Every structure is written in C-alpha cells, then in structure tokens.
Predict the structure.
Amino acid sequence: MSLMKLGAVSALALTMATGGALAKSDIVVAMQLEPPHLDPTGGAAGAIDSVLYSNVFEGLTRFAADGSIIPGLARSWEISEDGLTYTFHLAEGVTFHDGTAMDGEDVKFSLDRARAEDSANAQKALFSSIDTVEVVDPQTVKVTLSEPNGSFLFNMAWGDAVIVAPESIDNIKQQPMGTGAFRFANWVQGDNITLERNHDYWGTPAKLDKVTFKFISDPTAAFAAVMAEDVDVFTAFPAPENLPQFEADPRFDVIVGNTEGETILSTNNKMPPLDNVTVRKAIAHAINRQEIIDGAMFGLGTPIGTHFAPHHPDYVDLTGNSQYDPELSKQLLAEAGLPDGFKTTLKLPPPSYARRGGEIIASQLRSVGIETEISNLEWAQWLEQVFTGKDYGLTIVSHTEPMDINIYARPDYYFQYDNPEFQALMDELTRTTDPEARSALLKKAQTIISEDYVNGYLFQLATPTVAKSGVRGMWKDAPTQAVDLTAVYWE
Amino acid sequence: MTETGFLRAALRSRSLVLGAVLTAVFVLAAVVSFLWVPHDVAMLDIPNRMKGPDGMHPLGTDHFGRDILSMVMVGARTSIAVAVVAVGIGMVLGVPLGLAAAARKGSLLDEVIMRGNDLVFAFPSLLIAIMITAVFGASALNAIIAIGIFNIPVFARLTRGAALSLWTRDYVMAARVAGKGAARISFEHILPNVTNLLIVQGTIQFSLGILAEAALSYVGLGAQPPLPSWGRMLADSQTMISIAPHMAIFPGLAILLTVLGLNLMGDGLRDLFDPKIRRVGR
C-alpha cells in the first residue's frame, strides 16, 4: 500500500518536473461575451468571429494583425483588366477538420450559400457584387462581378465570408468545421469553448496544443479571474480603471491596441427635434470628448470627428467641426427655436463606455438645456427597441465593423439618415477601383456626415488586452473581430 | 400609562435610542438634501474624480468627480422615499385584507385572501421585483410597486393573526351584542389594538425596503441615473474598490447604518409596547 503511494507520488513529481521543463502548450483566453452559436456565416454576433476567425475558419483572403489584406486559402489571384473577373488559386493540400479535401467546389458552395436569396448571412452586402462563381479546376475558382468592386478582396477577408464544408452545414452552429490551424473540440455553454491543434494543417502549424476560451461577463469577476491567474489572457478587458494595476504588476502585460470601433452618440435623424441639423450641431458642440474619454474609459481612446478610424490612412481629422463650445450650442438651440432646450431619450446598452459615457453626456447636455431620460438596456432590449424598433432619441454604441461608413447610405438603418448625395457617393465608391480616387471619395464621405452632424462622434474605442507576461504573438490591434491564436506561444 | 412614563421607558431602552438616532440622522440628511447639499450631484467634475476624503469633499469623490457626501444625502432621499411608499402600499392594502379575513374567519373570503397571500409569499420577492422591472422598465416607481406588493401579505397575515385573538375578547363581544357590524368593530375596536404591532413590523419592513431598493439599484433596476441611489453607488464602485475604496465604503456604511438603526428601533419599540417585557425591567 505504502509502496503504491510512493509510486504515485514519484509519478506526480515526474510529471511536474517535465511539465516545468517544457514550455506551456495550452492557454486560457477570456472574453466578455459568449457566442450565441458557432456559425460565422450565419450570425452578426462579434463573439462568433472572436473565437473562430482564423483559428477554425479561413477565407480566400484574410486580415493580418496590422489590418492589411493578405492571402488566405487563395494563395494568389489575378484580376482582369476591367476589374470584373477574379481568378483565385487555392492552396494545395488543404483539408477540412473531418479530413475531406477543401477545393473549388467548397469555395463555390460557400460563396453561393452566403449570397443566396434565403441566406442568413449577416453581411450579405459583402457578396452583392458577385455575379457568378465558377470552378475552373479543383485548385482554381473564377469569380465574376456584375460591376467593379474596389473592396472585393477586403470583403472576402471578413469572418462572414469564410469557406465552409457543405457536409458541415447541418450542425455548424454547434460543431463548426473549417480548415484552420485549430479544430473545434468542445463547448460548455455558459462557460467555455475549447479548441485543439489541427495536426493536418496545410500552413504554418499552431504552436499551442489546446486553447480554452472562457466567458466572463462581469467586470469584477474579470478582474478577479486575471488577478488569480485563472485565465492567461483577457481580450478587450472590460474595466479600464483596473489597467494601471495590471501594468504595475510584473506578472502581467497590458497591450492597448486600436480597434475599428467608432464610438458614437447615435442619433435618430427622423425624430423631432433631432431631425433638425442645427439641433444636432448644438448637441455636437455641447459634448466634451476628452471628458468622456477620461471619465468613461480612463483615458483610453482617440477623439474622432467623423465615422472613420483615425489609424486609417484616409482618415480626415474633423473634430474641429464639433469643438466643445457650450455657448455656441445654446446659441444654436435658440436659432433652432428651442431656446429652453428640449427633452429626449438616451438608451444605453451594457458596455461601460455606454453606461458611463451616457451619464457624462447627459450631464453635458443638461448644462446647455437638453434633458435626457436615461434608460439602461440589456443587449436584447437594445437591439429590439433601438436597432430594430428605432424607438429612441439618442444612444451610445461602438460600431466595430471595419470600413463601415457605408451604413450611412442606408436610410433604413437605425440612424435613419437619408441623404441622396451620400448614397450616390457610396455607389460611386463601390464602382471605383483606383486607390487615389477611392481615397478622395472616402474623405468626401467623412466630411459630409461630419458636416451633417448625423451622429455625435465621440472616440475610437481602444482594446486593452491583459496577458500573463510570457505570452507572445497576440494581436495588438483589432482590425476585425478576431482573437487569432495561431501564432501565439509561451516564452 | 402616563405619557411621561412612556417617554422615560423609551429613553431607558438603549437600542431604541440608538436606533432612533441613527434613523433620524439619515432622515435628516434626506430632508436637508432638499434644501442644501455640499455639491451639486448632477455636476460632473472629471479631473477631480476618485479623490479620497479631504476638506472639500469630506467623503471623497466618485468616478465622475461627484461629491460622495452629497450623493449619500440625495441617495437617502431615494431610499427612504422608495421604502416609505412601499411600506405604505403594504399597510394600506394589507391591513384591511387582514382585518376582513379575521372578521370572516373560515369563510370563502378568508380562504381567498390568505391563499392569495401564500401565493405571493411563495415567490422569491427579489426575483419577482426583477421581473416586474424587466417587463415594465427600470425606474424608481416600478421598484416601489415591486417592493410594495411583497409588503401586502406581511401586513395582511400579521393583522389577521392579531385580530383573530382580539375577536374573542369580551369588549368585542359586547360591541357585537350592541349590534355593531363586523366592519365597524374591525375599525373601532380591532385596528386600534393592532397599531402597536403594525408600527413595529412597519419599522422592520422599512429597513427591508431600503435593502430591497439598494439591491434593485445595484443590479440596475431601481432608480435610474442621474438620480443617485446607494445601491447604484455600490455597483459603480465595484471595479474600483482596489483604487478608490472610499467609493464603496461610504454608501455601504449608509445602507448598513440605516438598516441597523431601523432594526434597533423596531426591537426597542417591540419591547416598549409589550407590557410583559417592560415590567420585568428590560
């Protein structure tokens, strides 16, 4: 008996010794929101892409860590002179996680499924310019567009455009199956998702054996989990006020990166008196951005004056259009026939930038005479009342999709901004492939919405990642919703 | 008992005095806040956020630079208003129900009232309160209604139990013989004799009401910003507890001391109203 015990103890000691000698090969990554299901081609929730983009699913092209578009499953491509035909050459030896080969038929299936009439894809507009998809041979696919589209390769990099296997569709929401460096292993709903290394990966294999995504929605619990080292990495850490503590702690690294999230005071452009551009201008001048960034985000974030990411080369700094000037704001309100201000609603979703930012904005608006009735909503309520129902005056939300200025061309979008000039401009942008001309159009678009004061433009959301020191290879910025772990390792 | 005798007995009860003083402090703070607060709670002062207590801000400032003393004072208003109205709803509706049930003991009316009470009792009150505010929207008013509903059975039961024993008294018998109706007897003879009990229970329910309001505000379902509330102050301070502990300590103390004060006062009143205990000189 005692001999057996001794054996067990020495075996344990041995395991511990070898465990210490080798670099850790598993990682626990925490994030706030859990995906509702696991089909990136059939849902809008960013959490789906956070877990699966690049890790499990890949598209023809992909986002690199710096936001540039690089080859994905398509290793190279040719574009015809007229910009209408894209010939993609697929990588050799790519297999899905069930062992079947990924070829041109799968690409055709995926693209046709995404753009079909009854498609549940959340970003169908990405595929709208596709006319036909032809399989030339198993390694070559020819996509013909109905009109030139300067952002087609960019569109194909989105998580909504990843390549899926026809036989996986029935169970894709529970058992996602892609071509990535990790394969889906298990989902404990309400707690975690595990991925394991795909040993048959066609490209550079992942360095980690096992990845666990853990979902911790409560900011206090998030802080406790990191402090107790229950998690190795926390992406988009929800409580910026705790970051200085992590920075001061040698156990952790804090990486603050850019996101594509324009945080805006969305305004219902059809609800009086907000339908009056002078009133919206008055709101814009009543807002003190720096106070919001300091008060709500503890200094994290870059002021913006339009709906465009400041780190993008085509960004125009238009914050001057809406300088903090409460006196001017009061004057504008009087001009609009509302010298005593007015009353509207301010509906806030759960993130702290919205809840805290909302209280600050309410106070700033109050000082120029605009009373807001704050209501704090859960995401489901927010989507129902504000996003779908358009029953709101003001709300605060971060628009995290990359290059999403074209939402202003959709009169039925929840801002209800309807400007034919802007819509024509966006149509022209889609047709334009020349980079210089595109840049000019994008700059013009930014100026139009800034001068129309469609929304209150607050700040570009920054994303803090807290990682144990020794974790290497995490993305710093978030050019798309993704937590790409394919290059992550322990030092 | 003479009035001076009652007062002397009251002052001799240490818990009653302490409880009354604590309660008075917060009621006073709430009343004063209508006329004056050290700083405007609606004005944010971001550069001065999370400052510890000093001469300017005796209890420090919160994450928006608001003065915590002022917020605790105005928060007392919210807490007390919610609790008073909620207990009021419970008394106004619960007491007549209890009287009616006692007057018609064993009748269908009694059954309906008491089983209805059981039904409300059977649900966890906070969960129902959350449900009500989730359906009708979060606001101080809905919090009042939600907390009020759960006070009804408390008072109905208490009143019925006490009234049942009173109905067997000789003076009630005499009143019946004199031809008074059940309603008249209930209000003229029963109600005055259960008042003491109701006051004691009311004090306890009042403290529970303050806790319930704090809990609802903590989860974001009570009073909405910018109206300060102790529960939300606690919730706001949660992630900052390691950098600005005063943000959690002071609203927490306010809740603790008010609830403690009300409970001590309730205990003291019970002792005072119960002649048997008073005679042995506790």
User: Anything to note?
Assistant: The two ends of chain B are 17 Å apart (CA to CA).
